[in-house]
Each structure stands twice: as C-alpha cells, then as structure tokens.
Amino acid sequence: MASRKAKITVVSAAVILLAGLSVIMAFHINARSPNHSQAVGDLTVTVECIPISESTPEFKFKTIPRPNPAKTASSAVFSLLTGGQDFNGANLQILKGGSLPYGPDVPDQNFFFGDGSFGGRILVDLQEAIDIGEINSYSWHTSNRAPQLYILFASDGLAAGFNPQPDRGVDLVAAGWKLLANVDTRPKTSERGGQYGVSIASRSGVIGHFRYLLFDCKRTEGFDRWGNTFYSEIDIIPK
Fold first, then answer.
1. DSSP codes, 136-182
2. Does domain 34-238 have CATH number 2.60.120.260?
3. DSSP-based three-state secondary structure for 215
4. Can you spell out the DSSP letters for 23-91?
5. DSSP for 113-140?
6. Where are the domains of the chain?
7. Angstrom distances, CA of residue 123 to CA of 98, 118, 152
8. 73-118 per-position pLDDT tens digit
9. Cα separations (Å) of 236 from 95, 114, 190, 192, 225?
10. Is the pTM of this model over 0.90?
11. What confidence tens digit (pLDDT) does each residue in 154-203 have?
12. Backbone angles phi, psi at 36, to 5 degrees
C-alpha cells in the first residue's frame, strides 16, 4: 500500500513538473515571438522575432516569408501623410525593397520617423485597385526601434466622400477607409531588440481589392526620444 502511494506521489510530481515546463516553454516562445496584434474578419497577423544574437542581413524567418521585393507590387508609390522623416534615416522609397540593412543599427538603410515624434501616417498608392494576397513588414534594431506598432487601413478609393490624404485628426473609417489590422509586436520582456517580421494575410487567400494602403505608425515607447521603429522593408504581394 505504501509502495502504491509512493508511486502515485512520484507520478503526480512528474505531472506537475511537466505542466510547469510547458508553461515555461510557452512563455519563452511567446516572449520571443510576440503577437498582441488583431486582424479584422478572416484576416490573420503572423509575427516572428529573431533575437538580436541570431539576426543576419538575410532576414531568415521560419514562419513568415522573407523580404522579397521582386514579388511586391512594382507600381507602389510611398508618401508621407503626417509626421516627418528623421534626417539620419533613409527616405520612404527604401521600403520598396532591394537594399536591406547590413546590420541592426544602420539608420541610413531604414525609414523611421523623427526622434521625439509620435510617429506618422504612410500612404501607399498602387495606382489602381488590385487583389492583394499578403502585406509583409520588416524591421531590425538593437533595442526599442525594433518592434512594430501600427494600424493598417485600406481602400479602393471608390467610397462616397473618400479622403485619400487624411490628416492625423481625421476619422479614417468615416473618410472611406477600411480597418484591416492592429499590429503590435512589442514583447512582454525587457529585451526588445532583434528582427521583426509581420505577415498579414487572409484565410481565403485574398486580403481584398484595394488601391490604397495606410499605415498609421506609432512609437513603441515614450520613455525617451528613440521609440520610432526602424522599418527596413514593406512588401505588398498581389494575388
């Protein structure tokens, strides 16, 4: 009887230990692949973070597509609606791809908003409405400029009263824009550096038929002046 109790005790302890390990493993995975993002309808937001110690200029993600400017919509024109480019960074055209940064802290190979600012709005005009299959964004930095924080809207430009250049205070939905996703890749841990990739897609295979995309970008923290993300590339993949 005593032996049976001892076996039950050992088995119970093992179950508790395994349960504890599962929690630790899940916490570790969530901490390094953070995803507090939300998408609308059948859309999905997949996030992956490569730790700074493992990141390379090849952006070798495992769960999302790597940067691939050859597949992105060649007609895309990037422009700033609100906010200002930091004078140390690259202009918006760097986001179309073809020149990924060679290291984690290379300002002139990334686009980012001015130090101390609250971010801004980036407009992408595809010149005509197309079926969009994926929207992928990439960033790389040693600290707070690595995570991505933005709200993504889209429009075909045909809604009554559509405003193609809404200022910061304009209600985008009322101005003819459709909310697609809230992206927030900030990890729960204090370690924020690394390469971040975000892939927005649809379970149906088509995100929608749109001409315009609007990235309403926010800074990742307000403790100092250096919270605006280093965006390396944005790929808009036609279906």
1. EEEEEESSTTSS-EEEEEEE-S-STT--SS--TTS-TTTTT-EEEEE
2. yes
3. strand
4. HHHHHHHHHHS----EESTTEEEEEEEE-TTT--TT---SSSPPP-TTTS-TT-EEEEEES-B-TTS--
5. BPTTS--EEEEEEEEEEEEEEEEEEEEE
6. 1-32, 34-238
7. 20, 17, 10
8. 888 999 999 999 999 999 999 999 888 999 999 999 999 998 878 8
9. 10, 25, 31, 26, 30
10. no
11. 999 999 999 999 988 899 999 999 999 999 999 887 688 999 999 999 99
12. -100, 20
At 5, is the secondary structure helix, strand, or coil?
A: helix
Q: Whose CA is closest to 231, among 153, 172, 150, 166?
A: 150
The identity of residue 146, as a single letter, is: A
Cα separation of the two ends of the chain: 67
Tokens of 168: 């910061």
Q: What is the chain's length? A: 239
Q: Quick check: 52 and 144 in contact, CB under 8 A?
A: no
User: What type of residue is 29?
Assistant: I
Query: At which residue do the structure tokens 């700074």 appear?
Result: 52
